[in-house]
Each structure stands twice: as C-alpha cells, then as structure tokens.
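Team,

Forwarding the record for the chain on the shared tracking sheet. I've put the sequence and predicted structure together so nobody has to dig through attachments.
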Amino acid sequence: MTKKEEVLVEEGSRQAPEKYYIKITPDGPYLVYGNPPIDQEIILPNEEGSSWVYQRGLSFDSSATPVALCRCGHSRHKPFCDGSHKRATDWDSNETNNKRPLLEEAEELEGPAMVLADNEKYCAFARFCDARGRIWNLVQLAETEEERELVRREATHCPAGRLVVWDKETQKVFEPPFEPSIGIIEDPGIRVSGPIWIKGGIRIESADGKSYTIRNRVTLCRCGQSSNKPFCDGTHASMGFSDGLPLEEKARSGDSAF
C-alpha cells in the first residue's frame, strides 16, 4: 500500500491494526501478514436443517510470515498454497471486482424499525438468511425486539457481508465484534467446502497495489472459479468444491465465531 492511498472503511466496520493485511499476488496465492489465527468454521444446522451456527474445527499453523493460502483451488495441501497454480489451466487469476464499496451498489429494503442492504453478487451461499424465515421478508415486518434480533442474527451470520442491517432511528449498523482472524468455511450440509472468511477489518490489497474497501466480514474465493474475484460468489456450491480436509469439531458449543 502506498502512503498516499486513502483506504475506505465501510460504515459499521473498523480497520484492523496495520500489521494485519492480505496481499493478492499476480497469478498466485493470497499472502497473509500479521499471523492472525486460522481455523475451520463448520456450518452446522438447527433442528429444521437450516444453517444456524458456526463450530470451530481444525486450527492451522499461521506462524509463517507470510502465510500463503491457495486461491486457485488445486493445492494438495489446502488451505495452503503448494504451487499448483503454476500448473493449473482451468482458472483465471484476474481480479474482476470493480473495487466499488459493497454498500454503494446494494439494494435497500426498509422495514418499520430496520433497513437491510443487500448486494447479491457477494453471496457466499452460506444460507443463514433463510434460517427462520427469509430475511428480506422478516425485515419488512420486524417490530418487536425478538423480531429485530432475528433479523440482526441472520444478517450478521452472513460471512460475506452481503447483508448489512442497521437501525432506522439511531442509524447504528449492527456488526459482530470480530477480532482479526481467518476462517476456512466448511459446509457439510451441502457437502462442499466454502470460501476463506476474513474477519475483523483485515485490509485486502489487490495485485495492483490498491486496497479494497475494508469490511468487518469478507469472503475470498478459494475454488478459483468465482466471477467476482477475489471475493466469493457462491460458485463453490454449484461446482461441488471440496478441500478434502477432515471435519473435527472442537468441544466448544454455540456460535464460536461470535
């Protein structure tokens, strides 16, 4: 990042300390600086079979400086890069995101107490938005505290930050208080491996040296096939992407990421 660059921070988010950042390399991996913890985040369902909580699984060694994470989808040492991108012929490393702030292009839905912003091109297909009624319907009806809490829950469990919700009266954006960390999402409900979940305002620097808008919740593509690179667009689900890693849930209950 150049000294002259002004890095945008999305409303409701805050930038992590400067030591934490991710550099996207041309035709290569994501380089992670600052040694944030890297853990599996396994999507678990509720009694109705809908996505409901994240459970931490395996922890990965993040002591290297930097840590190289695979973004082509072909590494045999996932989530780490093993150089397979040099031989891969079926992925395009070019970043196709236009670097405009997510909220700038989002559609807004207004309810009696809350406003929901939705930018569908960032959908990571985690499906928390359907857990107990579709969030787009819920926000337009939510008045009681219980109803508002369900809207907040469904929005903030969206790992990609596609969904952002705020209070109409106070204009407060609701965001989880994440520490800088990285999740490797696994989605056994649909038998796929999900994206790389960047939490806590870690800056992401493009291969051209410019930074993307800093957000509290971001998901990066790791199947190599997203049409919104470097961000996930849910393609891993349609292609059945799997990293082959075991799912070893730790003895921790509840929303481990929250």
